[in-house]
Write a structure and sequence with these properties.
Strand content of chain A: over 45%
Helix content of chain B: under 10%
Structural class of chain B: mainly beta
Distance between the termini of chain B: 36 Å
Largest sheet of chain A: 6 strands, mixed
Number of strands of chain A: 10
Largest sheet of chain B: 7 strands, mixed
Radius of gyration of chain A: 13 Å
Strand content of chain B: over 45%
Largest interface: A-B, 21 and 22 residues
Mean pLDDT of chain B: 97
Low-confidence stretches of chain A: none
Number of helices of chain A: 0
Low-confidence stretches of chain B: none
Shape of chain A: globular
Shape of chain B: globular
Structural class of chain A: mainly beta
Mean pLDDT of chain A: 97
Oligomer: heterodimer
Radius of gyration of chain B: 13 Å
Order of helices and strands of chain A: EEEEEEEEEE
């Protein structure tokens, strides 16, 4: 079955960077894009962007495009989300999911806490 | 960006009730509208895609309808496991947007 397994929780200081991984299994990795979504405490879901696992094409949310980089490693079927210049309002649970039209398969989520 | 407005923001209901949640888009999105159920500490779960298609394995008490700008999620007989927050999401344009969520609580 399709599984997306994310890396563990992170605590970062303001201004630092974080890189979250998302390892896929159960399907042909290069056949589907990976989308990233986050949820800040007490807030709703926010779309961050997606990356084609076929050709590496990316599409970022305008508000994050200067700080966000999405990559994939097809040799290990793993997607990565790197967010730089972290601020307190980046504290959130970050999710990866398969696809660009709807998310039927999600990772378990990774908490990133930004605190001085 | 396309804005999605859900109503109500929260509701209290009893087991067995019919629950209806609406989602209005700021412009026509055809049928590119999906519904998710989200419980604390868990990943969101896709219930409905393409406005009205039920995901395999999702109970038939969940249904979706609508097209253009107005959409509805209906739970025909609320069950204890249905208490959660529900989100609509559009994929008409590449940059997804979500509704603000509707929290369904126990009356």
């Amino acid at each position: 079955q399709v599984q997306l397994v994310q890396s563990g929780a992170e605590v970062k200081k303001p201004g630092a960077s974080v890189k979250v991984s998302c390892k896929a299994s159960g399907y042909t990795f290069s056949s589907h894009a990976i989308t990233w979504v986050r949820q800040a405490p007490g807030q709703g879901l926010e779309w961050m962007g997606w990356i084609s696992a076929y050709n590496g094409k990316t599409y970022y949310a305008e508000k994050l495009q200067d700080r966000l980089t999405l990559t994939t490693d097809t040799s290990t079927s793993t997607a990565y989300m790197e967010l730089r210049s972290l601020r307190s309002d980046d504290t959130a649970v970050y999710y990866c999911l398969r696809g660009v039209e709807q998310g039927e398969n999600w990772g378990q989520g990774t908490l990133v806490a930004v605190s001085s | 960006d396309i804005q999605l407005t859900q109503s109500p923001s929260s509701l209290s209901a009893s087991v067995g009730d019919i629950v209806t949640i609406t989602c209005r888009a700021s412009q026509s999105i055809s049928s590119y509208l999906n519904w998710y159920q989200h419980k604390p500490g868990r990943a969101p779960k896709l219930l409905i895609y393409g406005a009205s298609s039920l995901v395999s394995g999702v109970p038939s008490r969940f249904s979706g309808s609508g097209s253009g700008t107005d959409f509805t999620l209906t739970i025909s007989s609320l069950q204890p496991e249905d208490f959660a927050t529900y989100y609509c999401q559009q994929s008409y344009i590449t940059s997804w947007t979500f509704g603000q969520g509707t929290k369904v609580e126990i009356k």
